[in-house]
Design goal:
Strand content: under 5%
Helix content: over 70%
Structural class: mainly alpha
Number of strands: 0
Number of helices: 4
Largest sheet: none
Length: 85
């Protein structure tokens, strides 16, 4: 993802967080068809195949994954890096 796309994504996230209901409805109506398609992930054979592959890697011990505390620690570090808290 390019920096430009990332900047746009962050601006949209920030805007949506504070938008009033009328603006949220307008944005949703504009993107509704695309949103509905992405929310039906189980119909995407390639995505489901990737999930199955990753699950098998975890089950077989090929991928050790992360514990919940490790994940929380990683999230906390990223939050501090981004927001300073």
């Amino acid at each position: 993802m390019s920096n430009t796309a990332l900047n746009i994504r962050h601006k949209l996230f920030d805007y949506i967080r504070v938008a009033d209901e009328k603006k949220l409805n307008a944005i949703y109506n504009l993107l509704e068809d695309e949103i509905e398609q992405t929310s039906e992930w189980w119909k995407d054979k390639q995505f489901v195949s990737e999930l199955d592959h990753r699950f098998q890697a975890l089950e077989n011990g090929v991928d050790k994954g992360f514990t919940v505390p490790q994940l929380q620690q990683s999230i906390d570090k990223l939050r501090i890096k981004k927001y300073g808290k």
